[in-house]
Amino acid sequence: MDYYVYMLASKRNGTLYIGVTNDLVRRVSEHKQDLNEGFTKKYGVHLLVHFEECNDVATAIEREKQLKSWHRAWKIRLIEETNPQWRDLYEEIL
Question: What pTM does this model have?
């Protein structure tokens, strides 16, 4: 089973959220619809701006922890290397 580490943003250079899931389409849809109380609903963090695929859950969780420990500037640089326009990648994964 594949797992995904993903980053959501409220807008370009806005608030960031990092998560892990085994169903990227479902999980991002939940964030976009504000189905769960929490950080992304409170701060309007709905744009999928980066994601990475991992082969197992342990690797995905390790990568999530690594990204969460990064300085904000490093996270922004990672997003801009793969998605310089900060496009919402959700439509591309449907």
Answer: 0.96
Please state the φ and ψ torsions of residue 51, each to the nearest 5 degrees. -155, 155
CATH number of the domain within which 77 lies:
3.40.1440.10
Tokens of 33: 């619809």
Structural contact between residues 7 and 16, judged by C-beta atoms closer than 8 angstroms: yes
For the record, the structure tokens of 23 come out as: 């169903």
**Residue 85: domain span:** 3-93
Nearest to 16 by CA among 77, 60, 58: 77
Query: Tokens 């690594």 identify what position?
Result: 66
The predicted-structure confidence for 36-87, as pLDDT tens digits, reads as follows 999 999 999 999 999 999 999 999 999 999 999 999 999 999 999 999 999 9
Distance CA(5)–CA(22), nearest Å, equals 9
- Count structural domains, the chain: 1
